[in-house]
Amino acid sequence: MATHIGVGFSREKNTAAAAREASYLAKTQLKQPAAEIAVIFASTHYNPQEILPIINQSLGNPRAIGCSTGGIILAQGLEKRGVAVLALSSDEIRFGAAVVHEINATNAWAAGTDLARNAVMDFGEHRRQTFILLFDGLLKNNSPLIRGAQEILGKAFPVIGAGSSDNFSFKETRQYFKDKAFNHTATALLLGGAARIGIGSDHGWRPLGKPRLADNTENNIIKTIDGKKASGIYAEYFNQDLKGFSSNQPAALSFLYPLGIRSQKTGEDYILLAPIGMPDNGNIICQGDVPKEAEIHVMIGKKDFCKQAAYNAASQARDALAGVKPKVVIIFESMARQKLLGRETIQEIQIVRDVLGLDVPLIGMCSYGEIAPLKTLESGGEAHIQNGNIVILALA
Amino acid sequence: MNTIPKITGEFSIDSFWVMLGIVILTIIVALAFLAILKMEQVKRLKTAVDKLRHSFNSLDEQAKLIVKTDLELNKTQEELEKRLNSLNALDRISRLISTTLDAEEIFRRLSKAIVSELGFEKILVLMFDKEKEAHARIEVGFSKETVSEILSRLVKDHSLSTLLLEGRTISSLNAPKQKREKITQLLGLGHFVLSPILTQDGLIGIFFVGNQAENMPVTEGDEDLISILSNQIGQALENANLFEQVYRSRQELESKIQDRTRELALALEKVQEISKAKSDFVSAVSHELRTPLTSIKGYASILITGKVGDIPTAVKERLEKINKHSDNLVKLINDLLDISRIESGRVEMKLEEHNIVTLIESIRDLLAPQMKDKNIQFETRVDQKIPSLLVDSTQIERVFINLLSNAVKFTPQNGTIKVNAQMDKDNALFQIIDTGIGISENELPKLFSEFYRVDNEVNQVVKGTGLGLVLVKKILEAHGGRIWVTSKAGTGTTFHFTLPLKSQKA
User: Fold this and answer.
1) ipTM for this prediction
2) A13–B59: do the CB atoms touch at under 8 Å?
3) How near does any CA of chain A get to the CA of B109, in Å?
């Protein structure tokens, strides 16, 4: 029983050369004639329609998922430009891959059910353990997508994932499946079998100021807070300082000061949701549903809190493995953390490596939105769309 | 009569209502009292809630201040990090391009580095050739078609070319509106920095960087970075160019030197061949001459002794002259043979340690009669620290005899001859000083040439071979020493020569 892992990265200027180099390095480490599964992350400098066929051919046409990103996470640090490939081959871990296209606000729930169903069908009759979901980070509301998947898999089934991203231009992101790239798409990987999987997540943001009440909400839209226009909360705190809040385009700064929605179930957890739009009518649009009458805080992050959160997340993942050393670590990290940590992102990665093993292959991406279960036991492991998180999957 | 009315069955309606009234009044009073108490409580609670709300609001106001400060801090930090990253990038790129002197390698390294180090979406480096035509050397984020378009517009639009040839760093931050629009149109970039690449010869290229995304404007830091980097590129290319020129010149020079050396070697070879041929000829001829000379001398001697009969005096005189001239000829031939042998290395110097002082004294004794005849004073001044020298005593005696004989020959009556000997770190230095007739300056260079005799009244009278000094020079050189002469006509001559203190090749 063996699992083979290969991680390759290239920052070659030429797109084809970058794809060749990254896939070659991954395959060399894999030491197998072909990969079963590939996870691919690439910065927006590269045309995915060019790189994906090359990688697929090089790795023997594996079931591949992936997406564009504003930052690739590797053991050596954060790379803002490049192509990264994780190649997997195993006779103990089972995989199921699926894709759903043309996702929008009205069909997201159905898309989620289709995605999960297709992944289960591809997976077969084996023990299911974790569902990795990569979605379009520019999609406005992802909660129905997750609920749809949970409808098939179960509410408490471990679901983690991330939204495709770019370099804070919020123009266009891509999702990859096999040898093609799409948008408005979600791809997924179901893992199970004899694998041991550890998951950890945390954010490190703290509530600031007095609690507010989201008295009027509709799915992912907050209309009023404390009886006033929702966007007023940011106007109150930032006055003229914040650019981009008057338009529908999200401001990178809103990622640094997301809203914390206090979990009605647990009372302790805060689900972070960054405003991704603030139209002129004063509404705040988030990436996930906001319950009515939810207690809201503006949240503030600090580098030290972020690093502590990374440690917490890595420790959760490690503890879940019950002493077994992981074979590979996959990280989904919010673009907000990259912005906040800046040059200290490398320290955060080092913290994760220190906890999970310095010699363990590591790959990840920076995302617009993460999917992870809340920390506390009371949450029942239910996954939510969140922002500002670091989500770690350790596969053993 | 005031009596308490009995409570009898006859209870009056009025009393009932009075009682009821009292009870109701009591209740009302009690309720009022309770209400007042409650109101007081509510009032207190309200005050407390107000205080709490006030505290909350104060805290919230502080939180807003914290957020504003945090926001400014984040902005500052972001700018600082960007500067730091720029500095690091500049350092790394500078090292890469300054550690090579090959222009192509500079561009190759630059192409690789600026992609990974600089965070711009688009980069273009244009270089001008000798005809002032622009060529793209590095392009990132531009298609080939776009680059061609840019180049053709540069050529067609003179005002644009002039603008770009101004030599200043221009960016979307500082450029006047018209210029900015022109460049935006040219590059298709809303945010850009444009910097000239300069050398001593002037503008040789242009460095463009920029971003299309609205949320990625260029900053003053970017201007500085690109400006400095352009300078570095210019310097690196200039150094590469200078190196190429120097290298080419050196190659040419080396080639010329090699040719010249070859010519000289050939010439030397020829000279050596000629010299060897001459030596061989001299040696062969000398050998051939010696045999008949020996016979001539032998027979002359026999005739002089009268062993074959009496001979007339006139005949005897002539025979003596034949003998004497034969002796001279033999000496000439022997000297020639010695020179030839020393030159060809056939003479092996028998090096043994000898005390130079003893050597000089023995030669003084040898020449004493000649010096006495001319009343010549002979003085020696020898440094006693001179150790024994490793010399072939026979050959060195010949040196001293030759030089001192010459000194005696050319010093007139009542003159002085001195022999000095001292030493330095490596050599013993000797001087034979006379107060003779001296040698004119133009004759000094020829003194050590074969057969050369100075033209003076002494040489016109006293015959010689002209080989003595040549032989002396050869012997000294074979010992690792050297000889030179200083002289002033009418005052005297000094012969200087050295012998090594340590063993040298003989």
Assistant:
1) 0.76
2) no
3) 12
Q: Which helix (H) or strand (E) holds B291?
A: helix B220-305
The phi-psi region of residue B451 (left if phi > 0; otherwise alpha if psi is between -120 and 50; otherwise beta) is left
Tens digits of per-residue pLDDT, B174-211? 888 888 888 888 888 888 998 999 888 888 888 999 88
Contacts of A227 (CB under 8 A, 6+ apart): A215
CB of A45 within 8 Å of a chain B CB? The answer is yes
The answer to whether the CB of A350 falls within 8 A of the CB of A331 is no
| Calpha distance A310→A322 (Å, rounded) | 19
A236 touches chain B (CB under 8 A): yes
Domain positions in chain B are 93-248, 349-500
Pairwise CB contact (< 8 Å): A81 & B115: yes
pLDDT at A127 over 80: yes
Alpha-carbon dihedral angle through residues A15, A19, A21, A27, given to the nearest 10 degrees: 180
CATH superfamily of B93-248: GAF domain (3.30.450.40)
To the nearest 10°, the Cα dihedral for B268, B270, B271, B273? 120
At the top level of CATH, the class of B349-500 is: alpha beta
Q: A361 with A329: CB under 8 angstroms? A: yes
Asked if domains B93-248 and B349-500 share a fold, the reply is no
Mean pLDDT along residues A292-310: 92
Closest-CA residue to A170 (of B465, B72, B213, B458): B213
Task: Return phi, psi of residue B292, to 5°.
Answer: -65, -35
Domain boundaries, chain A: 3-202+305-395, 206-299
